Amino acid sequence: MLNKKLDLEAIKDQFNNQGYVAIENILEDGYVKRIAQSIYKEITWELCYLSENGPVSISAEELSKYTPQQSSQLNQNIMAMAQKGFSYFYYRSDLVNSTNKVLQEFYQDLRGEEFLNFCRNVTGELTINNLNGQLASFSPGCFLRKHTDKTDKEKRAAAYVFNFTPIWNNDWGGLLHMLDGEQTILDIIEPFFNSLTIFKVPALHYVSQVANYARGKRYTATGWLLME
To answer: Where is the signal peptide, in residue numbers (predicted)?
Structure first.
């Protein structure tokens, strides 16, 4: 699964110094290509966004029945919510309960000792014993506003983001921004193919809106490393 040539000590040092680390060439070449092809060609996506009443998901089938007027109203509602503060708009697919065999194997590998032990070593959090996850697709207009990932619902040690985007131009948006307590940008992380970002929770961050002229989609597998 993991690239055998990773420099674990350098990765640990970066995480300890910054509270986050971006790792290139994280997965073995053939392994990552199988996952990427399944994500590109075999996944059914649902639109998700935050409404005034909470999270909303709309299936692809339901969305295909929307009239132009309904689609326009939906977009207005999403943008109105985003103007108020934390909000999001992107497309998702469940990784935990995926029926795709390649992605089922990927999720089981993520929960296996090789990856969990790697995450324990990187973060120094030895009580990490599980994780959750979803697949996310950011197309033009999609965004994730500022937040910290902190919650009382589960014990999150850190967040992880695997990038499966084949080609990305950094002026298309869709970039992960890491912030400090004063909301100053510390770093901007591009979604390079076969890279992994891990950051402590809580950590203030956001994903910039994807430009309307972007000629691609930003694909990730993301979730949280959970403690006992």
So the answer is: none
